[in-house]
Amino acid sequence: MAKAHPQSPAVLREFDGAILGDQRRNARLGKIVRRLVKKPGAGFPRALAEDADLEGFYRFVRNPEVTFEALLAPHARATVGRLAGRGDVLAVHDTTEFRFGGVRQGLGVLGTSGHGFLGHCTLAVSADGERHPLGMLAVEAWARQRPTATALRRRKQLSYAATRDLPTEQDRWLRGVDAAEATVGDAASLIHVMDSEADDYALMAALVAAQRRWVIRLCYDRVLKSEFARPHPKTREFIARCPVLATRTVALARRRRQPGGAKDKRRRVRRERQATLAISAGTVEFRRPSYCQAGQATLSVNVVAVREVDPPPDDDPIEWLLLTTEPIGSREQVLQVIEYYRGRWVIEEFFKALKTGCAFEKRQLESRAALLIALGLFVPIAWNLLRLRTLARTADTTPARAVLTALELEVLRRAAKPKLPPRPTARAALLAIARLAGHRAVNGEPGWQLLGRGYQDLLMMTAGYQLAQRGEK
């Protein structure tokens, strides 16, 4: 795609340089993105109101020359550009399910009755404590056609020995790390952050061998090397005996009922409360599990533990056990590991931007191939929404021009009530955007739907302003 005009919506620049093999397809891409970014949560018929535009869109997503990889590539390049000069950057990895109703060609099985596909994403996040989303580095999508080896073991249908040679989805974590490193090169030093689903001995051994930096939340109470472990042979018992290095009092937000909450304590209902956390750290040496054939016989890693002190008797206590290659020689280094892991929640917000702000799972396309093209269109748009929302919640001095074009800012000045200051910060501008959709300060921070609608209104007003200027000329 040709370079976007300087006054085009900022997200349009995330598609600059897309190689689709034909200039007409490149032009069509620009037209589609302009329409979708104005109404990210609307259905395709509403967002692409003209019959010719809608028909052109459907031809675009069905064209075999248009691929998800080609659409994502320019955004990944732009992301690397945003990493330059930052030094350390978090590469946050996670997998999400995309569920769709009805019968669609190429979809797989999700759970016991759902249909859709999975996406493993690697999001670049600033490691400076602000946790700003910098863009997507890699995405791998696949459809599950049969139960995984893990599911078969959980159902007690097969043993570890019987499933050892079956295909596994666990390798996606290492592929995501390799893809992110290849994309970034020497532009930054990546610290790979993963949730407990990535707690896998073979993965950690491969990351250590490749000299990668990482933080992974412990899932399994791993057995330690015998001579190292006495008198406490497992990880949790060992770390419980380590001295407390620091304590912190934090406010825990209320957590509403979530699917699977009865089984997974991290999804159960939680009341809002103050929690006192004790922090400790130590170095352990894992013994390779008997079912694992990869990696050396033992693996030395650092462990940082965050545990709640005196939790309420009817609430699940807070507990993080973080495995890492990062140093823990000082109190500051231990606290830094915790800050790195806190960046993992940014990718959860990205998934909300994609599924709620862009309504991706409501898209009525007939095949997984077409849905993947739509995903390639929406990943940069969802990232832009996430960036807007993140800056709206950051009370700093970032100028509004960091997220809006000069023309968008001029239109917002004319529409905002109360008026914007002469040099508005990004937060002031973005709260003004939310007010376009009816947000009020008494309602707290703006949510995904309000911010999406306000941004849609601003883009539509900007388009009208441009038309009026052309008419005057």
Give your account of this protein's structure.
Strands 1, 2, 3, 4, 5, 6, 7, 8, 9 and 10 form a ten-stranded mixed sheet that branches. With 473 residues, the protein is α+β, with helices and mostly antiparallel strands. The mean pLDDT is 83. It has helices at residues 23-38, 44-47, 51-62, 68-83, 149-154, 160-163, 172-184, 201-209, 226-229, 235-240, 331-342, 345-357, 368-392, 406-415, 426-436, 448-472, and strands spanning 88-99, 108-110, 114-126, 133-142, 189-194, 213-217, 244-252, 273-287, 298-309, 319-324. Among the domains are: 216-323, Transposase Inhibitor Protein From Tn5, Chain A, domain 1; 393-473, Transferase Inhibitor Protein From Tn5, Chain (Transferase Inhibitor Protein From Tn5, Chain A, domain2, Orthogonal Bundle), CATH 1.10.740.10. A hairpin with a 6-residue loop joins strand 3 and strand 4 (133-142). It is built from 16 helices and ten strands.
In short:
This protein has helices at 23-38, 44-47, 51-62, 68-83, 149-154, 160-163, 172-184, 201-209, 226-229, 235-240, 331-342, 345-357, 368-392, 406-415, 426-436, 448-472; strands at residues 88-99, 108-110, 114-126, 133-142, 189-194, 213-217, 244-252, 273-287, 298-309, 319-324. It contains 16 helices and ten strands.
